Amino acid sequence: MSPPCGRSLLGIALATTAMLGCQFDVQGLDIPDGAGVDVTQVLDAEVDADLDGGGGCTNGVQRCHGLDVEDCEDGEWTFNKTCFWGCAYNEEDRVYCASPLWAENVNMANDVGTGAWVADQGLTVINTDDWTITTPSGPLAVDFKVREHLRSVDIGPVTIIGFAEIQIPDGARVEVEGTQALALVASGSIVIAGELMAQGRSDGTPGPGGYPGGLEGGAGGGSGGGAPGAKSSTALLKSGAGGGGHTGLGGDGGTVVPIAGSPVAGGPGGTIVTVDTVDGSLVGGHGGGSTAGDVLEQNKAPGGGGGGALMLAAQVALEVLATGVVNVGGGGGSSRGAGAGGGSGGMVLIQTHICLIEGVVAANGGGGGDVESGESGEAGSSGDLPTPGGGAHGGDGGAGSDLAGVGGTANDFNGGGGGGSAGFIRIDTVMPPDIDLGTISPHELTAGHAQNAFPTY
Prior knowledge:
The chain is mostly beta strands. About 5% of the residues lie in helices and about 25% in strands. Strands 6, 10, 11, 12, 14, 15, 17, 21, 23 and 25 form a ten-stranded mixed beta sheet that branches. Strands 9-8-7-13-16-18-22-24 form an eight-stranded mixed beta sheet, with no helix packed on it.
C-alpha cells in the first residue's frame, strides 16, 4: 500500500519530501544534472550509523540520506544536493546520483520535442506505422519527435513519440492504431483526464504491438493464440473458438453435444504466456481463434485481435485523473454461426518518478462471440469487471483478479467463443505508486500486475 499523502502531484511531492527528508524544489520538481534510482540501496554501515544528522562523522566523507547527498564537515553532516532519481553507492562505496534506465531504448535527452501537447476535444488518432497524429482539425502542429526502436523480427519495432509535456483532458479521446507498439514520452509530466485507447478489434485487427485474431478458420496470432473452432462433416454443427491467452488461460470455445452423434469439441483457449515482470519487452495481447465455416467454407468468424502495447514514460510524473482511462483491452470475438474467441489484453508499461492513478488503467481480455449471427463479444472493459461475451453463449474476458477467460457455451447446433485472458500492467517508479483511488486491472498481487523500483545505472 502506498503511504498516506495528498491526491495531487504537489501533495505527493510534499509527502515524499517529509517521508525521505528530501530538500528538492517540490513546486517546480527541478531535475538536477546527472538525474537518474536505486531506492533499495543498502547504506554502508559506517556511513549510515548516524541518520539524524548528528556529529561523529569523518571529515570529507559523503553519505546518502534518503534522496540527499550529505557531506561530513567538522564532524557534522551537511546537505550537499538532492538526487532526483535516487542516491546510491558504487562498488567503491562512493556516493553518486543514479541515472534512469528507460525501457525500450527510450532516451529522454534525444526522444522528446519542445512542444507541450494538449489533446483536442473529440477524436485524435495516432498511427504508429506512418508516425502521424491526426487531430479533429488536422495533423498535429505541436513540435514532437518520432523515432523507431528496432527489436527482434517476431515482436517488431516500437514507435517512440516524445513531447515536453502531454495532457489528454476530459472530453478528449486518443486512439492508437497501427502494427507497432507505442511509447509516449514526456520530459515533464503526462496527465490523462480523457481516454487513451489501444484495443484490439472484433474483425481480427490487433491493437498496436498486439497479435491478430484468427482469420478464415485459423488460430489466433501469438504463442498464446486461441485455437479455431471445428465443425461436423455436414457443417450442421459448429463449435466455438478459443480465446487468446496471456497472463491467464484463454477460455475454451463451446462444445456442441447433439442429441445423436458425436460432440464437436470447442477450440481450446490459448496458453499462459510467461511475462518478464522486470525487464520484459513491450508486447501486446494474443488473438482469439476463428470459427469453422459452413459447407461452402464460407462465413468464418474472425477472432478478436490482441490488445495493444503502450508505454508511458514521464521524467517527472504520470497522473491518470478520476475521469481518465488507459485501455489496451483485447478485441471481442465475432459471430457467424458459431462464436469466435476474444483476444487477450495487451500491456501497459508506466515508467516515471511519481505515479498517481485515480482513474482506470486496464488490460482486460475481450469477450467471446455468441452463436448464430449473434452479438460479438465486447472489447476489453474499462474497469476491473469481466468483459461481457456476446449474447447468451459467448464467454467473458478475464479482468481484475480473474485473469483467465471464461469458456463459451453451446446450443444444439453451435458453440460460443471463449473469452480472452487479461493482459499485463507494469509500473516502475521511484516513489511507491499511489493507486488507492484508481482502478488497475489486472489487480495487484496477480500475475498480470507488477510494481518495481525504477531501474537505474
